[in-house]
């Protein structure tokens, strides 16, 4: 795993945006895996800027989002559909029919999940997956104890995650218990993963994911087995890592052609 530590969330987000932009320029019909939450917001803002000011073209891009709350309609302000359109899709030229977000209102969740997996395969697989990380180490909504081979399915959120996500709903009690999420195995099938984490609240989860043993108790730790995983974090999220000097040393010595 490549560990990139930046002075702040903004600089880290710029690097992530440049990765996405480079892929979209090199492969205009790229398939992106996308996350919601506060972490990727600055990255989305920068991609919108690149679209508006530099003509970054999303017209042939296909997207798959990681997750959605069960029971929320796309119009619900706290739904991940609303989040993605408000913060990203409405501001770029992505085609609506190429956007895929799990359907929180599906009447047959297992059938929907199977279809979601099939649609990813039919699109050619995900080229680049952007991830945040929960304070408990979840990726997507694969909470601790999730199978590390899991596919898209229904999951039950932990009390901690419902607490962490309370803001969008006004209180933790209003956060749905269930979500549809891409599985850990689904995420592991993507060609490149970028995991972003900002702030000391994420430091323990990042330390476990990067330097801990691979364990379902920290689902992000499976990324140690991903052939191309890039972990881009700020100083706060790096505070519990032991080998920060080495990670900085490696990054400073990156060959010019590899830099973004
Ligand atoms: C969101 C997702 C989650 C979040 C994680 C961090 O689509 O899959 O794994 O990335 O809960 O959330 P924030 O960024 O709000 O701290």
What does this structure look like?
By secondary structure, the chain is an alpha/beta fold. The protein has one domain (2-253): Rossmann fold (3-Layer(aba) Sandwich), CATH 3.40.50.1360. It has eight helices and ten strands. The protein has helices at 9-26, 41-54, 80-87, 109-122, 159-164, 184-188, 203-211, 244-252, and strands at residues 2-6, 31-34, 62-65, 67-69, 99-100, 128-131, 153-156, 178-181, 192-197, 229-234. It has a seven-stranded parallel beta sheet, with helices on both faces. A three-stranded antiparallel beta sheet has the order 4-8-7. Helix 7 (203-211) links the parallel strand 9 (192-197) and strand 10 (229-234). Helix 1 crosses helix 2 (41-54). It is globular. It starts with a strand and ends in an 8-residue tail after the last helix. The mean pLDDT is 97. Residues 35-39, 66-67, 132-134, 138-141 line the site of fructose -6-phosphate.
Q: Short description, anyone?
A:
The chain is α/β, with parallel strands linked by helices and 260 residues long. It has helices at residues 9-26, 41-54, 80-87, 109-122, 159-164, 184-188, 203-211, 244-252, and strands at 2-6, 31-34, 62-65, 67-69, 99-100, 128-131, 153-156, 178-181, 192-197, 229-234.
Structural class: alpha/beta
Strand residue content: 15-25%
What distance lies between the first and last C-alpha atoms, to the nearest angstrom?
A: 17 Å
Could you state the oligomeric state of the chains shown? Answer: single chain
**Total separate domains:** 1
Largest sheet: 7 strands, parallel
Using the CA coordinates, give the radius of gyration. 17 Å
**Distinct ligand kinds:** fructose -6-phosphate
| Average pLDDT metric | 97
Total DSSP E strands: 10
Strand order of the largest sheet: 1-10-9-6-2-3-5
The ordered string of helix (H) and strand (E) elements is: EHEHEEHEHEEHEHEHEH
CATH class: Alpha Beta
Considering DSSP H and I runs of 4 or more, what fraction of the residues is helical? Answer: 25-40%
Low-confidence stretches: none
Number of helices: 8
Which descriptor suits the 3D outline?
A: globular
Q: Mind telling me which CATH architecture this is? A: 3-Layer(aba) Sandwich
CATH topology: Rossmann fold
């Amino acid at each position: 795993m490549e560990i990139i530590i930046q002075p702040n969330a903004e600089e880290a987000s710029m690097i992530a945006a440049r990765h996405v932009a480079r892929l979209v320029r090199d492969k205009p019909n790229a398939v992106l895996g996308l996350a919601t939450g506060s972490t990727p917001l600055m990255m989305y803002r920068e991609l919108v800027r690149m679209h508006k000011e530099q003509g970054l073209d999303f017209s042939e891009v296909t997207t798959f989002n990681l997750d959605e709350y069960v029971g929320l309609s796309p119009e619900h302000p706290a739904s991940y559909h609303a989040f993605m359109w408000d913060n990203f899709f409405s501001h770029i030229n992505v085609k609506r029919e190429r956007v895929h977000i799990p359907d929180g209102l599906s009447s047959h969740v297992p059938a929907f999940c199977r279809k979601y997996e099939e649609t990813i395969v039919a699109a050619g697989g995900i080229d680049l997956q952007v991830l945040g990380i929960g304070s408990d180490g979840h990726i997507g909504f694969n909470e601790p104890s999730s199978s590390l081979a899991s596919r898209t399915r229904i999951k039950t959120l932990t009390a901690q995650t419902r607490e962490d996500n309370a803001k969008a709903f006004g209180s933790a009690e209003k956060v749905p218990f269930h979500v549809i999420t891409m599985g850990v195995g689904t995420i592991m099938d993507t060609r490149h993963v970028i995991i972003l984490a900002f702030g000391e609240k994420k430091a323990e989860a990042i330390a476990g994911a990067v330097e801990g043993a691979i364990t379902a108790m920290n689902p992000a730790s499976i990324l140690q087995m991903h052939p191309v995983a890039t972990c881009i974090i700020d100083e706060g999220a790096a505070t519990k890592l032991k080998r920060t000097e080495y990670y900085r040393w490696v990054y400073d010595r990156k060959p010019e052609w590899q830099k973004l």
